[in-house]
Amino acid sequence: MTRYGMAIDLTRCFGCQTCASACKVANNLPAKLVFNTVYTVGGASTDTATGTFPNCTMSYRPVQCQHCDNAKCVEVCPTGATTKDDDGIVSVDSELCIGCGSCIKACPYNVRTLIDAEPEYYLDVVVGESDAPSHKTGTVEKCTFCKNLIGRDEVPACMQLCPARARFWGDLDDPESMVSKAIEGRDHEFFMEEEGTEPKVYYLV
Fold it and tell me: Which among 58, 20, 63 is positioned nearest to 39, based on CA atoms?
């Protein structure tokens, strides 16, 4: 059985935000909705370092839904709208979601958004993939691992255009997959591992 996951090489990521932009366009996300955020690990604002010159440090951490094996959002959803699929992807069924926000409170990663008003867009035309998810008022949305793309043997939009080739995708249980080979022999960490969610996004360090 397939168990999809992703590895992100933090030694390669240089904070260009291409992954976030590609995600937003491919999924035709409304103006205030993001699935993928690249945080600066350093100063208090984006692209600022911490420390005193010349001993300054700065790095980046892209964060999206971690598609956890022990997903707390699944446990608290009162309608069964949030589920972990057979392939390990955590999904939200917009037809079942009532926008109660329970999953938002349960998720430690701050990667879910309630669409509480009619979505507004930067453009007057629909962009992105023809089968991009619709965005419905009163529902919660998050990264889907581009389930529509992988369904036709493509990779998630966030890794398609990454100029640093910092992202790796595939079946975590297949030793020959791209993601398994990327993880093999590399030190890695999980974001907020102490939460016990067993995330499937590996950060290579």
Answer: 63
HEC string for 54-118: CEEECEEEEECCCCCCCCHHHHHCCCCCEEECCCCCEEECCCCCCCCCHHHHHCCCCCCEEECCC
- Give the pair of three-digit tokens for residue 73: 């959002």
Residues 142, 57: Cα–Cα separation, whole Å: 31
Kind of pairing between the strands at 55-57 and 50-52: antiparallel
Averaged pLDDT score across all residues of the chain: 96
| d(C-alpha 97, C-alpha 80), whole Å | 8
Q: Residue 44: pLDDT band by 50, 70, 90 thresholds? A: confident
27 Cβ contact list (under 8 Å, min separation 6): 35, 128, 129, 132, 133, 144, 146, 157
- Let me know the angle formed at the C-alpha of 163 by 161 and 45, rounded to the nearest 5 degrees: 100
- Domain harbouring 199, CATH code: 3.30.70.20
Q: How many domains does the chain have?
A: 1
Expressed as residue numbers, the domain containing 36 is 4-204
| Alpha carbon of residue 61 to chain centroid | 11
Name the CA radius of gyration of the chain, rounded.
17
